[in-house]
Amino acid sequence: MILSRRLTVSLALAATVAPLAGWAQDAPIVIGYQLPLTGNTAQYGQDFKSAAEIALEKFNASGALPVPVEIIYEDSRSDAKEGVTIARKFVDNDDIVAVLGDFTSTVSMAAAQVYKKAGVVQLSQTASHPDFAKISEWQFRNITTQDQEGAVNAEWMHEKGIEKVAVIAEQTDWGQSVVKGFTTPFKDMGGEVVFEEFFNRGLADFRSIITKIDETNPDAVYTGFFYEDGAQFLKQMEQLGVDIPVYSTSAAYNDKLIELSGEAADGLFLTATFLPTREDAGVQEFVEEWKSLHDGAAPGQFPAQAYDAVNIMLEAVVRAYPDVTRESMREAVAATTDFPGVTGNTSFDENGEPLKELTKATVENGEFVEVK
Amino acid sequence: MSKQLLTKVGMVVLLFVVVPAVLMAFDRGYFYQIATIAAVFVLLAASLHLVTGVAGLLHLGHAAFYGIGAYVAALLGSELEIGFTLGLPAAGLAAAFVAFLVALPTMRLISIYFAVATLAIGQMLYLIFLNWVSVTKGPNGVLLFSGIDFFGFDIESEIGIYYVVTAIMALSVVVLYRLTNSYYGNALRSLREDDQCAAAMGINVTVLKMQAFVISAFFAGLAGALWAYTTGYISPNDFNFSQSILVLAMVVVGGLGSLPGAVIGALLLILLPEVLRDVGDTRNIFVGLVMFGAILFLPKGLFGEVSALRFARRILGSGWSGSADNREVGWE
């Protein structure tokens, strides 16, 4: 019973992989993209795929290379065991010269162990775990670290004369880095963190936290949340009549935040790397293309990160061509300097961390506007 | 050669000769990875089988004990540099110890109350993994750089890892198999069928439940250590409620009360999503349909308990035909 099942399954699997073995001279250059296309983070993965398709189509139509580039998408469901399995599958496929993804840090890091061992460059559009890029020379990311965002926010508050800050963040690796990234530089500037608390993602009732924040009487609140939690938090702040300025990170930057929280979002301060309203030809082209595919909805921060990640990878392919190997791709990705993307100019430092310029923004009358 | 011996030898040959030969013939990391994950989940399903299948206690928090094993192995390995050889038993024992502690107040509960209690235990432990940042590193997870160091041998090759994982899995499954097909196993079955009747016949129901729970947690802990060492990175989400449900689904689809069923269920639910990978986003629906179909048309499982017991009695042969005139014991 076990014999026949295991064997048939192995053979069936082998049959699906075998055709990839023979490849002709003009074969396309293949990049793997692991992302959650199903499961409870599927909305992000689907957005990444959509953004990647826009970027890839534009690239192949531009004729920058005599051969087409192809992306193989694999669904990780944001599950570490699937992520690792996909990584092994990508590594097995000799045609794949580089890999994009995954979405969450945890899956990206589990998969990173495989890429590190096999020597395949991995560029994640979102993995923000402080140690992700440090795993090996093969890991890169296209999202600003919270050390960068926290420092900009700390500086910004300091300039406004804010001295006492309450800090809350979601209980994830990312939330941890938000708190650390902000409190360290803020305390160095002489600021005081009067309250610090983590909440579990998807918390419906923030009122006890808000009450506790209010009791400590801070000058501002610094928050590490995504737009879903952000909207809840802001609405409940308003309901309780707590009028303390709220600062946040680029993760809160999403039109849905305003949609969900209405007027409560007005006066929110945040740092962002991508503003769809920015007057820049590249940004506008992406935004138009995205809107035409998504019933007129503007893209958020994450699809923009993915769009840039794919373009950085494609630019690296051009740089490495015609000698496109896993090794040359690492060098080519590492050599990225001032890549003009929709999320600002990107270079990588020696650890594979992106160096980006951050935009300060605020919400005014239900719209994100840049703070000059 | 007798038929019993032939079956046993056949299984050993399959696991340690045929499958490795196929794996080596293809030499693809992807297949090794699937084989490893399948082995880990076979062990998990087999350990849950003892509690849920044999003793009939609906256990909704099994993944938490799997998690304890993984965390203990990973933290011992990365923080204290205690390798695999000691880390593996430590992982099992730690999981068993925690199971013992939580079992003390809960094992007198029955049916749905027990299920809810285990659900709570699972969530509680998951939240500890997530929020006890100073020890578990919270959501950041634990990176484990050391490989499998097995009694002084560094196991680095893919095939070596396969052998270590499979050997530990196979050995554990054999222990669970002998345990469930012994008089001890029958006592557990009696408590599933009617615990009051079992108690009236002199079986200490609470102690028996507790033992089953602790033994099961021990093997789940071993599975956790194997997962930690083969992946190199663990985080709380690997051990959340949905993993408990996945393992439970394996046991139910395979056949409650049947160890071969649990093994087949685990293989099915690990291999099927991989085979269907090319189908695309709808593959989860197909997996769901297969599970639904299995429950609808084979409510006793793919390899039900009656077949499993008949199979076991044939294999264990002489142990079950001990009477003087060599009459078969058990039902036929």
From TrEMBL, chain A:
Coiled coil: none annotated. SUPFAM superfamilies: Periplasmic binding protein-like I. It comes from the Bacteria. CDD domains: PBP1_ABC_HAAT-like. Residues 1-24 form the signal peptide. Keywords: Amino-acid transport, Signal, Transport. Transmembrane segments: none annotated. Gene3D superfamilies: 3.40.50.2300. Residues 28-364 form the Leucine-binding protein domain. InterPro entries: BCAA_transport, Leu-bd, Leu_Ile_Val-bd, Peripla_BP_I. GO terms for biological process: amino acid transport. Belongs to the leucine-binding protein family. This is Branched-chain amino acid transport system substrate-binding protein. It comes from Tropicimonas isoalkanivorans.
TrEMBL record, chain B:
One of its GO terms (cellular component) is plasma membrane. The chain crosses the membrane at residues 5-24, 30-50, 57-76, 82-104, 111-133, 159-179, 212-234, 246-272, 284-303. It is found in: Cell membrane. The keyword Membrane applies. The keyword Transmembrane helix applies. Keywords: Cell membrane, Membrane, Transmembrane, Transmembrane helix. Its main location: membrane. Coiled coil: none annotated. Pfam families: BPD_transp_2 (PF02653). PANTHER family: HIGH-AFFINITY BRANCHED-CHAIN AMINO ACID TRANSPORT PROTEIN BRAE (PTHR30482:SF10), HIGH-AFFINITY BRANCHED-CHAIN AMINO ACID TRANSPORT SYSTEM PERMEASE (PTHR30482). This is Branched-chain amino acid transport system permease protein. The lineage of its organism: Bacteria, Pseudomonadati, Pseudomonadota, Alphaproteobacteria, Rhodobacterales.
